[in-house]
Amino acid sequence: MSDVKQILVTGGNGQLGTELKRYAWPEGWAVTAIDIDELDLRDTAAIAAMVASKSWAAVISAGAYTAVDKAESDIVTAWAVNAMAPAAFAEACAKASIPIVQVSTDYVFDGARDGAWDVNDPVAPLGVYGASKLGGELAVRTSGARHAIVRTAWVVSAHGNNFIKTMLRVGATNPSLRVVDDQHGSPTSAADLAAALATITMRLVEDPAAPHRHLSFQQRRRGHLGRLCPRDLRAERCTWRRQRRSAGHHRRRISDTGDAPSQFAPKP
């Protein structure tokens, strides 16, 4: 149907992209979810051509370089995917007069705050991953495109790679595990996040007066999504160690490791 509003989604094979494909979009809406096989996010010319190839209603930029530790030694690729790709998408969206929803991360913060982060807190990324994601945020904000930037954290689902699935796999064959107990966060359902992104995107498409803003998405608390989205959900705050226990292996021995090992990227 020619009147169907088509949403372009990047990172189509990831946790969030998979849930955006599974989401029950209302009649008259559809998604085209692409991944690296269809578009290399390091190729800014290809990104511009992709956006110009069809009359998209909006872009959800969910694709990212998410190997936090590897990014410390793969700086160029991390910045290309996390900063330059959103910049190219936002520039193309501005030219096409369509909105872009950029997915970002709590890694833009330094982790020094004791408690939940607010979207207006100062940003101070500690490593390459967070810095590159912040670069993507700034590129979108300054592009002239109508936009929303949604920061999230600790995304979990039955798809792709995430902490819970890793603990289930490793815990099945190891009598004890070492898991850090000094990092706190709120696990986020990819399905719930996808529903929020869908709501935000449709609002931006249908209401030219919808505000451009930073948003946070966590489980079970109303708040920062404000007029764009009816839900801002926050899960109970926990540590990686406690989340590992929730994976169903609490009878196995779990050792606290304290601070993350120095060979890994600093975590907020």
User: Helical percent range?
Assistant: 25-40%
The total beta strand count reads 12
Number of helices: 8
- Beta strand %: 15-25%
Average of pLDDT:
80
Based on CA inertia axes, which overall geometry fits? globular
Separation, N- and C-terminal Cα atoms: 46 Å
Oligomer: single chain
- Radius of gyration, Cα only, in angstroms? 18 Å
Please explain how this structure is put together:
The protein has 268 residues and is α/β, with parallel strands linked by helices. The protein has helices spanning 15-22, 44-52, 68-71, 75-96, 128-141, 163-171, 190-206, 240-249; strands at residues 5-10, 29-34, 58-61, 100-105, 147-152, 155-156, 176-179, 184-185, 188-189, 213-216, 238-239, 253-256. The strands form four sheets. Strands 2-1-3-4-5-10 form a six-stranded parallel β-sheet, sandwiched between helices. Strands 6-9 form a two-stranded parallel ribbon. Strands 7-12 form a two-stranded parallel sheet. α5 (128-141) links the parallel β4 (100-105) and β5. α1 (15-22) crosses α7, α4 packs parallel to α5 and α6 crosses α8 (240-249). The longest helix is centred in the N-terminal third of the chain and has 22 residues, at 75-96.
